[in-house]
# Entry
Amino acid sequence: MTDHPSAARVTAIYEAVASGWDARRAQTLFERPWLDAFRAAMPGPVPSVLDLGCGTGRPLDACLADGGCRITGIDAAPAMIAAARAALPAHDWHVADMRALPPLGPYDGLLAWHSLFHLSPDDQRAAIAGFAPLAKPGAPLLFTSGPEAGEAIGTMNGEPLYHASLDPDEYRAVLAAAGFDVLRHVPEDPESGGATVWLARRHPAA
# Structure
């Protein structure tokens, strides 16, 4: 577990910026190629998606909803969930921490874009192990990480903002142990704002 004090402040920081988050957060959908691949990996006209760390639901969940998905979003910041509920009232939104989820799922797809990396390395390992029962056999998992193992402290709203990452080989091992195969991994993807992106799939026979 990390000893860095900023790790305990992540939710409070996002709670404080929730009212202006949509103006702060890029709405250009540079993530669209990854979302399209994620959507294409799910079956049927109305696949169910669990977004772990959904924020206000925009723009990613709004895009997936436009593509026919039924969204369940969780976020530890109540103000973010309130904004998501107001923006996309036809979908399901819950205040919850991905480290202590209520009974949910399973789902046709799991999304953790720019959220998992706010957990400590130990908590990420546990969270990924916990993704398995949330995912139907064959369900895709789309998430972002850092490019290499370690902690990194950014800033938001004048406060230090915690990030952490496992080594890429460890992500592969942890995903495999949880029953996920890596389909694609792009470190620091220049088409996605420099995000390190992972697309995995729950074993079809799981």
Residues 42 and 181 are 15 Å apart (CA to CA). The longest strand covers residues 180-189. Residues 5-202 form a domain with the Rossmann fold fold (CATH 3.40.50.150). Strands lie at 48-52, 70-75, 92-95, 109-112, 140-145, 150-156, 159-165, 180-189, 195-202.
